[in-house]
Amino acid sequence: MHYDPVKDVFAEVIRKIPFLRVLFYKLLDLMFLRSWFVRRELRHLRKKFGSRKIDIYDAGSGYGQYTYFMAKNLQPCSIYAVDIKEKWIEDCKNFFSSSGIGDVTFGIEDLTKITHKDKYDLIVCVDVMEHIEEDRLVFRNYHNALKNGGYVLINSPSIYGGSDVHDEGEESFIGEHARDGYSIEDLTEKFNPAGLKVYRYRYTYGFWGDKAWRLGIKYPMLMLNLSKLLFIVLPFYYLVTFPFTFLMMYADYITESKTGSGINVTAYKE
């Protein structure tokens, strides 16, 4: 199973019809439970900085979903959003410029090669680290890029069923992943040598969240990998299934899970 071909279809649609981009962002925020947890943690972190302006590094901005959220809800702030995909960055540049959203810039960067030094108050990295083999190097780069007392927010699949892998030797549902996921122990062991300390963490996509992900994301993705013509069927599929998906996501959101197929971790630079 590969997400990128399906993601590229959505990217092409919002490129050709720009006014749909904000609606698309809202749908992503609604349909992906990870966004619920990420946005809650971002609001919490913004309060930690008080009223002062903060510098944010969006490490792997993708469609620009979280860049848009932060620009609207984490003010006052300045955001530098990067991705390795040039086309996606150009799309975001054009959209943010035409929308008059200020204090946001974009760049093409490889996170294993960045050299920022004591520059950012907050680094946001959502569903990126599972794609990078040299994660220890990237964590060191994040430490260097942060100001003293700055935070990094990592959201990733976990080892407890992340990437839909539940048994040893089982192939990942998402073929682009370099690893199936992280545990808090694994991240702590990699953070500490890089000079980062865990501030707080939460496993996400527990019992109910996992069921919601299958019903709301996995099964539709499997359909679309069979044929893009099935995009026509999607609205009817969600009309029937979304009320159940939403209730299961909400149950996961308000429940502390001992394990889950996702993990949301915030660390800081001392």
Would you give an account of this structure?
By secondary structure, the chain is of the alpha/beta class. It has one domain: Rossmann fold (3-Layer(aba) Sandwich). The chain is built from nine helices and seven strands, in the order αααβαβαββαβαβααβ.
Describe the SSE topology.
Elements: H1 3-16, H2 20-31, H3 33-48, E1 54-59, H4 65-73, E2 77-83, H5 86-98, E3 104-108, E4 120-126, H6 135-145, E5 146-157, H7 184-194, E6 196-204, H8 207-226, H9 234-253, E7 262-269
Helix pairs in contact: 2-3, 6-7, 8-9
Number of helices: 9
List how many beta strands DSSP finds: 7
| CATH architecture term | 3-Layer(aba) Sandwich
Indicate the proportion of strand residues.
15-25%
State the fourth-level CATH superfamily: Vaccinia Virus protein VP39
Find the structural class using helix and strand composition. Answer: alpha/beta
Q: So what's the overall shape?
A: globular
Radius of gyration: 18 Å
Distance between the termini: 40 Å
Q: State the share of residues found in helices, binned by percent.
A: 40-55%
Strand arrangement, largest sheet? Answer: 3-2-1-4-5-7-6
Mean pLDDT: 90
Number of domains: 1
Can you summarize the main beta sheet? 7 strands, mixed
H/E element string? HHHEHEHEEHEHEHHE
CATH fold-level topology: Rossmann fold
CATH class: Alpha Beta
Low-confidence stretches: none
